[in-house]
């Protein structure tokens, strides 16, 4: 699969330049915290990116308000994609970090119309560990949530 590689020099994030209008984009929607525009890659027709207006490298760098606004915009865009393209399926995808599959280090969410045999493929290596292992993972996360993870 061809992967896009952002060759922008440091400090000149490609999506920040797009938000500032320094490079063109096919804009779909914008509000105070987010912007939605057509992905140049168009994995399937109607493929939209929803990004924060402010530079936040990943989901973990976005504020709770920005994260909520991005999902709200993705929901609006998904409804518009259904109205305009009527795909039989639709997928949200959000990647963080190079190992998470992120190629542009400015928080964004993909809204992707899905079709039969559209060429999109994931391997999803299920492990199905015993219940005690799941309980241990949940305990670690509850402890992390209690000690505060919002900053
Ligand atoms: P990621 O791999 O980080 O989840 O997604 C980055 C996406 O940004 C890719 O799908 C790529 O096609 C898209 N992209 C990269 N540069 C530009 C650009 O200048 N304009 C637009 N509209 N999309 C871009
Ligand atoms: Zn940026």
TrEMBL record:
Biological process per Gene Ontology, one example term: nucleotide metabolic process
HIT domain sequence ranges: 14-121
Pfam families noted in UniProt: HIT
Residues of the active site: 108
An example Gene Ontology molecular-function term: catalytic activity
Name of the protein in question: HIT family protein
Motif window: Histidine triad motif: 106-110
């Amino acid at each position: 699969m061809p992967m896009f590689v952002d060759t922008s020099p440091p400090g000149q994030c490609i999506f920040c330049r797009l938000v500032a209008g320094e490079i063109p984009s096919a804009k779909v929607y914008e509000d105070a915290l987010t912007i939605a525009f057509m992905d140049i890659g168009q994995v399937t027709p109607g493929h939209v990116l929803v990004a924060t207006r402010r530079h936040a490298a990943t989901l973990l760098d976005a504020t709770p308000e920005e994260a909520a606004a991005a999902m709200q915009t993705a929901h609006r865009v998904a409804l518009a994609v259904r109205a305009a393209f009527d795909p039989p399926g639709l997928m949200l995808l959000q990647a963080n970090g190079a190992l998470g599959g992120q190629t542009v280090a400015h928080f964004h969410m993909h809204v992707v119309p899905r079709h039969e045999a559209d060429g999109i493929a994931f391997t999803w290596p299920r492990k199905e560990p015993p219940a005690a292992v799941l309980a241990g993972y949940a305990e670690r996360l509850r402890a992390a949530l209690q000690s505060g993870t919002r900053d």
